[in-house]
Amino acid sequence: MQIAVITITRNNVEGLRRTITSVRCQTYADILHVIIDGDSTDGTAEVLDAERRNGTAMVETAPPAGVYDAINRGIRVALDAGADVIGLLHAGDTYASDDVVAQVAEAFDEGDIDFVYGDLHYSRAGSDKVLRYYGAAHFTPAMLRQGYAPGHPTLYLTRRAAQVAGPYDTGFRVGGDFEMWLRLFEHTELRPCYLPLDMVCMDTGGLSQRWYSRLVTNNRERLRSFRMHGLPASHLNILRHYTHVLKSFICRKQR
Question: Are 42 and 13 in contact (CB under 8 A)?
Answer without folding.
Answer: yes
